[in-house]
Amino acid sequence: MATASTSYRLDAGLKHRLAAQANEEGITETALVTRMLEEGLRTARFPGIVFRDGPSGRRPSLNGGPDVVEVMVGVRYAVGRGEAKVRDAAEQMGLPERLIRLAIDYASAYPEEMEERIARYEAALEEAKAMAEQRARLLAS
């Protein structure tokens, strides 16, 4: 991705908080500003999407709900096509259909990122399943 140099004037207090947050996270101010702007633009485009930290890094999630990748895996395995798929995923996940559609819209806007996240999510599920099976075998003997 090409970068472009830019300059902004910030309130001194905001600049201080920015520097402190970047220092706390162990990243540069530029990296923090870039991440915050990207996430802010995405949340402005998709109200109801928030970003959370976790073991897999920062990820898009439904406000007050699951990660977008979890919804998309649910949609992938839902029964039906089109709106029937949305209804089934909503029912299976206990979420309103509008939130399923929001996750689908977000994933549609960032397909490569979402496919990568889904692949990592499914690999982690397979690893957890294998560990559980191994644990069960060890405990059975």
SSE layout:
Blueprint (H helix, E strand, L loop, with lengths): L11 H14 L3 H17 L3 E4 L6 E4 L5 H10 L5 H11 L3 H13 L1 H30 L1
Antiparallel strand pairs: 1-2
Helix pairs in contact: 1-2, 3-4, 3-5, 3-6, 4-5
Describe the overall structure.
This protein has 141 residues and is mainly α. It has a domain at 69-140. Helix content is 67%, strand content 6%. It has helices at residues 12-25, 29-45, 68-77, 83-93, 97-109, 111-140; strands at residues 49-52, 59-62. Strands 1-2 form a two-stranded antiparallel ribbon. Strand 1 and strand 2 form a beta hairpin. Helix 3 (68-77) crosses helix 4 (83-93), helix 3 packs across helix 6 and helix 4 packs across helix 5. It starts with 11 loop residues before the first helix and ends with a helix. The relative contact order is 0.08. The model has no long low-confidence stretch (mean pLDDT 94).
